[in-house]
Design brief:
This protein is mainly beta and about 180 residues long. The protein contains one helix and twelve strands; from the N terminus they run H-E-E-E-E-E-E-E-E-E-E-E-E. The protein has one domain: Uncharacterised protein YcnI-like PF07987, DUF1775 (Immunoglobulin-like, Sandwich). The protein is globular, with a radius of gyration of 19 Å. It starts with a helix and ends in a 7-residue tail after the last strand.
């Protein structure tokens, strides 16, 4: 009996290792509320083909405004700002531009996992019931993992090689602050 359990465990290790290697960047949160500020935690599961991750870039899609990234100890943080395609009412002010990309630069060895956090308001330009995809790129010394593919209507994101991480937008229940 012990031998068969050990044999099963030995057979499972390559499968587990293969699934970890092919793991995609994802968000800890599964849902965000339309019209509310959401905290999003990007989980980076590995480096690039054995190399350490040196930079993590997150592209902020239209409809997500007032973005503020969380600094990470040991990493430098920069934001790229630009014009929104639309104007947005944000607590009585009209916003026409804001953070369009977040860039963390540091070093995350391939053997480790880490999280990169930011918050932003999910506007009504993103329909409740839809998936909000937020492209992310990991840069390494000699390559990159580009989690940027957004599924076409009716396509499953699991069918993509490098799917952008996403969260489901749910309707607000009452007035959101």
């Amino acid at each position: 009996m012990k031998k068969s359990i050990l044999t099963l465990a030995a057979l499972a290790l390559p499968i587990m290792a293969a699934s970890e290697v092919s793991a995609h960047a994802t968000f800890e949160q599964k849902e965000v509320v339309q019209g509310a500020t959401a905290k999003l935690t990007l989980r980076v599961p590995h480096g690039c083909g054995g190399e350490a991750t040196l930079k993590v870039r997150v592209q902020i899609p239209e409809g997500v405004i007032a973005v503020k990234p969380m600094p990470k100890a040991g990493w430098t943080l920069e934001t790229v700002t630009g014009a929104y395609q639309n104007s947005y009412d944000y607590h009585g002010r009209t916003l026409t531009e804001g953070v369009r990309e977040i860039v963390w630069t540091g070093e995350l060895p391939d053997a480790f996992y880490d999280e990169f956090v930011f918050r932003g308001m999910i506007t009504d330009k993103i329909a409740a019931g839809e998936m909000l995809y937020i492209p992310a790129v990991q840069e390494c010394a000699n390559g990159a993992e580009r989690w940027i593919e957004i599924p076409a209507a009716g396509q499953d994101s699991h069918d993509l090689d490098d799917p952008a991480p996403g969260v489901k937008v749910v309707p607000a229940k009452g007035h959101a602050h």
